[in-house]
Specification:
heterotrimer, A alpha+beta, B alpha+beta, C alpha+beta, B: Aldehyde Oxidoreductase, domain 4, 7-stranded mixed beta sheet, C: alpha+beta, Uridine Diphospho-n-acetylenolpyruvylglucosamine Reductase, domain 3, 4-stranded antiparallel beta sheet, 11 helices, globular
């Protein structure tokens, strides 16, 4: 077993202190140690986006990030977006547009969409497609997800 | 609780865009899948799989694994003397005894305190093999003297299944179908075409990997948290493997991260997890890694197919003769039975006087094939619709006119005995062609094939027929429903039909609310616990909306009758004078609101000697089983579709870009427009992946690309424009006129794309996938020729 | 288990980081982790005793222009290469190639230095940087603990798949490349089954100056995934150098580029197809350059 390192970081706005093995992924830490199961394991290789989280505001695959590297950073999971106004707009838009089927890719899609809207509040169809190119969905054919993101962009933009 | 007398809801829920009931939780990351459940005391299971394609197991040494601290159990076949073979023909022992037949074969299993520990323990297990020669090409499996995959086992009793008795050949299943007289059809033909097609391996790639949790209570009753699509069939099977009564098996289905047919069969890992729970007396969770999901999940069955078709100069089809060879893999799952669906496409997609279809599914040392959305129909339709194009060209007819000439209409019965009581096929063809400007573009692009330029456009049309009213495969194709209306007027719809992401719970809720005049918010659905829900045969064959929908409507009508019968005396009228609308009871003639539902239900329930408003209903579709010759009206309704695709072929690279899909689907009637669109769009893109990007590369029994990096699913930027129309043929038996549609959209995609590539380049490709290199090779005549499918004497 | 890291360190100065690297037994360097994580899990990379996270070392994520050179720190993310105005202005070829890199999530985490040190023949930043005459800086401590720096042309840095000239005690600190001259023409092409989230079947990066709207100078043609390392197609560059593009020259140059490629068959494509792609796409690129 690898050595354990104690790290301190902000998880969904609250400080956490955790001892993590050096080679553990952030995904494993979130799901198995901390019980934040909204972030999903889809492939463990950064090829599907189901485990997308925000680190210092940027979206990353938590399966590719070493948990030790969370030290000192702001980590936000789908659970941490529960009271985020932009995320609520995105989630409502996903529901309304039928962008959810089996739902397994959905938390990653939502987090990635929130990241997109933070930098591009009014994405067009093409930029929404590009933004989720690293998020695989096997059910929907993506169209409704893209519609939901574009529409959420409008809603977020109108609000501000 | 709201007691609103005036409703602002639209007068009908049918055809509306109703968001999925489970979507808010899913979008919030609050939904708990099997991977997210952690029971107190839970252990983690992992399986040691064969490293050899085909070998004898000489020795298994588990002592080091057993000695590892934190390991609770290590089991091999020797520890489970009461094992029974599982699967469709019972040829698959969960833990292998003396022989492994494919790389996914299960040799030993561990339960430990963590997943990491369990996987580490696997590395400590020593296995000694003696390699056997492997059969990794289906055709080789048929050769005289071929290595037997399940050789006869000495001492087997007569009637023992393959897993206990073995076989003296490598044939897992065969099907022979005939209607009419193909010889006569050939004689009457002006044009005859023959080609061999090859359809490749693909796999489901559910985003949620396979997983199960098994737990026994103190009385030895089994509780399974399972992703299965067939909970009631599972219940019986697990009872059989444990030698207990089925009533002692309870299956809870947490929300499922995608199904697509992959969870129709029982798999060794599920049984092994149960054995681990039994051995440890603790709950055991077993969840695959993605690599394991690729290595150890069923595939869509690869098929070699030789099709011979004929027509007359005037475009009338004369006959079709088909031989197919299915690579079944080492064990038999539902993949071997897909010919039952394929033969329907061959026999009945178009009006056809003469048809024969012969197939064998053979054992090999390759991964074994399961059921996958479309169930063989993608493969069959690819061949049929390629030939329709070829024959149309041979007689100088356009592809649309040729299809219309042979397309069924309402009221026809096919040679196989399918009766089309509703049929929007001709409308589908016309609408898809018209909305895509098909004929104009088809002529234009044909004319431009020889012009210079890097990018070539093409359009392709393909159609499909699939069961849309269930399929009578099992003894029952039925579904039960219980409806409970509580004292607050809230409806609990308890259905046997599972939700696997496709939206069945929403559409069932909608149908019930429509009957009861309630808004969609007035109902919740319980559909995931065999201890509570009534029987359903499972989620497959695009049957849930149709069968479970009819069942739910029936239960709702009984509830409504009960309520109105009780209400009639109070309002001094006959039950027929009343209706349920807007959340209350109204006078039918005037629409006058007499009472709201919650108040009335309370007065009913709290009256003396009263009955509760709880109703039950069972619906069995009026379909029949096939006879011995595979003839009969197997479904209560049939769905149709036509799809036109437009592609752009890059001659420099062979890359095919799917630009647009114009589809017209005969869905009977649109129930939930949002959910319906979602099914079609998702299916279109799944069909796109089958045709253009996905390719499970199996070489010498080994999967070369067991990951999302090299097994390429379609990503968002590749999604085409989609223009989907719905033809409402109003099926007389369907719930509110609707028919099943879940599998339809994927079925004709590969065929349409093949036709479009030919329209663009003049080159017809008869083997999948159309990945850039394979298309580039085809354009340069550098694809290997396909040998004809071997014919196997009955 | 493969995961036997005894010590994790995240130093906050370059000297500290280099001191760790200089210790016996060395260290596995962690930056973005997007490659290290899957490679180590698959057993293709073995961890050293120490896992050394260099992301806390200050100054290594800089993007600057000085003395006619664009300077990029090793910790610059791929997203920065896509978006940063200085990169877009002064190395548009690199920006363009970075935009084809994996996915947004990976671009946000993966670093330039990591992509170079992984030395995959298909690495997306490698061919454009080779075509742009990039140099890389390797730093290490000498026996007395003094920081030593050496600059190497990127071309020549790669010695095989996953292998480079970097010594175990060295870190790649950054990259420098001449800012794009006004008359520079560039093109990047990446082939894959999908437009996104794909590893190149092949990639081609082209850069050249064009004087008097016709004559090509300083021609660079780099090819990815056609050899054990990304390569410069030097014979082809020489064919084009000082010449105006004609249809015949384009044809000859494309054939030459294909002959310089020595690709293998693997799970993604055959060697034959890769050569065909090099031929066809070099031709397209040169035609486009000629026509614009």
């Amino acid at each position: 077993m690898s050595a354990t390192t104690e790290i301190v970081f902000m998880l969904n706005g609250a400080e956490r202190r955790v001892g993590v093995p050096s080679t553990m992924s952030t995904l494993e830490m979130l799901r198995d140690m901390l019980g934040f199961t909204g972030t999903k394991y889809g492939c463990g290789e950064g090829e599907c986006g189901a485990c997308t989280i925000l680190v210092d505001g940027a979206s990353v695959n938590s399966c590719l990030m070493f948990a030790v590297d969370c030290a000192g950073r702001q980590v936000t999971t789908i659970e941490g977006l529960a009271n985020d106004p932009c995320a609520r707009v995105v989630q409502d838009s996903f529901v309304k547009h039928g962008a959810v089927q089996c739902g397994f890719c959905t938390p990653g899609m939502v987090v990635q969409s929130v990241h997109l809207l933070a930098t591009h509040p009014h994405p067009d169809e093409l930029s929404a497609q590009r933004a989720i190119e690293g998020n695989i969905c096997r059910c929907t054919g993506y169209k409704k997800i893209v519609d939901a993101i574009v529409d959420a962009g409008c809603a977020v933009g109108d609000r501000s | 609780m709201s007691e609103v007398l005036q409703s602002t809801a639209p007068s009908t829920l049918i055809g509306q865009r109703i968001p999925k009931l489970d979507a808010p939780d899913k979008a919030a990351g609050r939904t708990r899948y099997v991977h997210d459940i952690q029971l107190p005391g839970q252990l983690y299971g992992a399986i040691l799989r064969s490293e050899r394609v085909h070998a004898r197991i000489l020795r298994i040494d588990t002592s080091k694994a057993r000695a590892l601290p934190g390991v609770s159990a290590v089991i091999t076949a020797a520890d489970i003397p009461d094992q029974r073979p599982i699967g469709v023909v019972k040829d698959n022992l969960p833990l292998k005894t003396d022989r492994v037949r494919s790389l996914r074969d299960e040799i030993a299993a561990v339960a430990a305190e963590s997943e990491e520990l369990a996987r580490h323990a696997l590395t400590l297990i020593e296995v000694e093999y003696e390699d056997l020669s492997a059969v990794t090409d289906a055709a080789d499996s048929l050769l005289p003297g071929a290595m037997l995959i399940h050789p006869p086992i000495a001492g087997a009793k007569s009637g023992d299944p393959v897993g206990l008795a073995g076989r003296d050949d490598n044939i897992a299943m065969r099907f022979d179908y005939v209607h009419g007289d193909v010889g006569q059809g050939e004689a009457e033909s002006d044009v005859i075409v023959e080609d061999t097609f090859y359809l490749h391996y693909v796999t489901h790639c559910c985003m949620g990997v396979s997983g199960v949790i098994a737990e026994f209570d103190a009385k030895g009753n089994l509780l399974l948290y399972s992703n299965t699509q067939v909970p009631f069939l599972h219940k019986r099977e697990f009872a059989e493997y444990l030698h207990i009564d089925p009533s002692r098996v309870r299956i809870i289905q947490p929300p499922i991260g995608g199904g697509f047919g992959s969870k129709l069969d029982i798999y060794p890992f599920e049984v092994i997890c149960v054995y681990l729970a039994r051995a440890t007396g603790r709950p055991v969770r077993m969840v695959y890694t993605r690599e394991e999901e690729f290595m150890a999940s069923p595939t869509r069955q690869p098929v070699r197919l030789t099709l011979r078709s004929g027509c007359k100069k005037d475009g009338t089809l004369t006959f079709r003769s088909v031989h197919t060879l299915h690579d079944n893999g080492a064990y038999t799952s539902w993949g071997a039975t897909t010919p039952v669906v394929m033969m329907q496409a061959f026999a009945s997609l178009y009006r056809l006087p003469h048809c024969e279809y012969h197939t064998v599914a053979v054992y090999s040392n390759n991964p074994y094939a399961g059921s996958f959305r479309g169930y063989g129909n993608l493969q069959a339709t690819f061949a049929i619709e390629s030939h329709m194009e070829k024959m149309a060209a041979a007689i100088g007819m356009d592809p649309l006119a040729f299809r219309l000439k042979n397309a069924h209409v309402k009221g026809e019965e096919t040679g196989q005995g399918n009766i089309f009581r509703s049929c929007g096929f001709q409308d589908c063809l016309k609408i898809a062609a018209e909305r895509s400007d098909f004929l104009h573009k088809w002529r234009e692009y044909t004319g431009k094939q020889k012009e210079p330029g890097r990018f070539k456009r093409g359009v392709g049309l393909a159609a499909m027929l699939h069961v849309g009213g269930g399929a009578k495969i099992y003894q029952s194709d039925g579904c039960g429903t219980i409806i409970k209306i509580d004292d607050f007027g809230h409806v609990t719809l308890i259905t046997g039909a599972s939700e696997i992401g496709q939206g069945s719970e929403t559409v069932l809720a909608q149908l019930v609310c429509e009957e009861l005049g309630l808004p969609i918010s007035a109902v919740s659905v319980v559909n995931n616990d065999t201890e509570i829900t009534p029987w359903d045969v499972g989620v497959h064959a695009s049957r849930t909306t149709f069968v479970a929908g009819n069942s739910a409507i029936g239960a709702a009508r009984k509830a409504k009758d009960k309520i109105l019968e009780a209400a009639a005396p109070r309002f001094a009228c006959a039950p027929e004078d009343l209706d349920m609308k807007g959340g209350g009871i109204v006078r039918k003639a005037t629409g006058e609101m007499l009472t709201n539902l919650p108040r009335f239900i309370r007065s009913l329930h709290f009256a003396q000697q009263s009955d509760l408003v709880i109703t039950t209903n069972y619906y069995e579709p009026p379909s029949v089983h096939f006879d011995k010759g595979y003839k009969g009206d197997i479904s209560a309704a049939y769905s149709w579709a036509a799809q036109v695709v437009e592609v752009e072929v890059d001659l420099d690279t062979g890359a095919v870009r799917l630009v647009k899909v114009t589809g017209a689907h005969d869905v009977g009637r649109v129930l939930n427009r949002l959910g319906l669109e979602g099914q079609i769009e998702g299916g279109v893109v799944m069909g796109q992946g089958y045709a253009l990007t996905e390719d499970l590369q199996v070489e010498g029994g080994k999967i070369r690309n067991p990951n999302f990096r090299d097994y390429k699913l379609v990503t968002a930027p590749e999604v085409p424009q989609m223009d989907i129309s719905f033809v409402e043929s109003m099926d007389g038996e369907g719930p509110q006129g609707a028919k099943g549609v879940g599998e339809a959209p994927a079925i004709s995609m590969a065929a349409a794309i093949a036709n479009a590539i030919e329209n663009a380049t003049g080159v017809r490709i008869t083997s999948l996938p159309f990945t850039p290199e394979r298309v580039y090779r085809a354009l340069h005549g550098a694809l290997p020729e396909l040998p004809t499918t071997p014919k196997v004497a009955a | 288990m493969n995961h036997a890291v005894e010590r994790y360190l995240a130093p906050t100065s370059l000297t500290q980081a280099l001191a760790v690297l200089a210790e016996s037994g060395g260290a596995t360097v962690l930056a973005g982790g997007t490659d290290l994580m899957p490679q180590s899990r698959a057993g293709r990379v073995k961890f050293a005793r120490t896992l050394l996270n260099i992301r806390r070392v200050p100054g290594m994520d800089m993007v600057e222009v000085a003395d006619g050179k664009l300077l990029l720190g090793a910790l610059v993310t791929i997203s920065t290469l896509v978006d940063h105005p200085l990169v877009r202005d002064h190395a548009p070829l690199l920006s363009q190639a970075a935009d084809h890199f994996a996915s947004d999530q990976i671009r946000n985490a993966a670093t330039l230095g990591g992509n170079l040190c992984n030395a995959s023949p298909a690495g997306d930043t490698l061919t454009p940087l080779m075509a742009l005459d990039a140099e890389i800086e390797l730093v290490g401590l000498d026996g007395t603990g003094v920081l030593q720096s050496r600059w190497l042309p990127l071309d020549g840095f790669f010695t095989g798949p996953g292998r480079t000239q970097r010594k175990p005690n060295e870190l790649l600190r950054g990259v420098r490349l001449p800012v794009a001259p006004d008359d520079q023409k560039v093109a990047f092409y990446k082939a894959g089954v999908r437009p996104a989230l794909d590893i190149s079947t092949i990639s081609i990066a082209f850069a050249a100056r064009r004087r008097d709207r016709a004559i090509l100078h300083d021609v660079r043609l780099a090819l990815g995934a056609v050899a054990p390392t990304p390569i410069r197609a030097r014979r082809t560059e020489a064919l084009l150098e000082g010449k105006a593009l004609t249809a015949e020259l384009v044809r000859v140059a494309a054939a030459s580029a294909a002959s310089e490629a020595t690709p293998i068959d693997d799970v993604r494509a055959s060697g034959w197809y890769r050569k065909e792609l090099v031929l066809n796409m070099t031709q397209r690129i040169l035609e486009d350059v000629g026509n614009n």
